Amino acid sequence: xxxxxxxxxxxxxxxxxxxxxxxxxxxxxxxxxxxxxxxxxxxxxxxxxxxxxxxxxxxxxxxxxxxxxxxxxxxxxxxxxxxxxxxxxxxxxxxxxxxxxxxxxxxxxxxxxxxxxxxxxxxxxxxxxxxxxxxxxxxxxxxxxxxxxxxxxxxxxxxxxxxxxxxxxxxxxxxxxxxxxxxxxxxxxxxxxxxxxxxxxxxxxxxxxxxxxxxxxxxxxxxxxxxxxxxxxxxxxxxxxxxxxxxxxxxxxxxxxxxxxxxxxxxxxxxxxxxxxxxxxxxxxxxxxxxxxxxxxxxxxxxxxxxxxxxxxxxxxxxxxxxxxxxxxxxxxxxxxxxxxxxx
Length: 344
Prior knowledge:
- It is a single chain.
- The chain has helices at about 5-30, 35-55, 55-80, 90-100, 100-125, 130-185, 190-215, 220-225, 230-235, 250-270, 300-305, 310-320; strands at about 240-245, 275-285, 285-295, 325-330, 335-344.
- It is elongated.
- By secondary structure, it is of the alpha+beta class.
């Protein structure tokens, strides 16, 4: 998990807490030598932190670890000199969570927590159990919540990549296999046709590679960059029908519907044994619908649910992200119909 806005908020929090701690030091203490030295160390810490943020991309992982070590060391010295700077522990813990493994993060959290506890005790005129328990609780909650959010983000990204692989790469690889199998059968009797099929397979491989690079960067389907949703659906290996008058759709809705059509046709090629597949896109009042029908062998929907494999679940999840729904109707020996509905 590496949210840009969360990172910016934590960096801003660090500088605000650093400034607040410096203001508290000036207000509550005279400008003697120790105070001035503490302010100088705080200024140096702020400069080093700012340089690390500004040069984040150039530093690389190892450089960031060195930078973090310098920042933590400077902060520990500063807290020893002026305990009020212990407030900066939370944003520093967040940086540790971003850069370190779980084991080293726990060690860093322990060091930050102990330093904060000692600082809070030094600031207080009497001992209070909350001075010990509160920093421990905050550190524990921060670590657990962050790692759970990271794990959830990783699972979400894994699901996204799985859907893209199924709907794009699987379809492309199936087409390549069919082309190469046909070329192999024709190689002895019609080498010119066989070479043409191999060239088509190579072209399909190149397109598949481009699609893979796009979905790794979380970009939309390239076919939508070059034209409209009906044009992209018409280019698929299936009979296409358009109903209603086309109107603008959100880019995410278009991408979801195209990927659903690609995934459904990949299932047709892989499992259905169909001789015909029809894709119908309908622009209605209040919703847009996409139907994919094939005359293949079908399957028993009731016996296959809650999932007949990953493909149908991936389509349903993809549509749910744009507020849509998926309905599957199939009878053994009578084909399959997949209906996607997205409210507009």
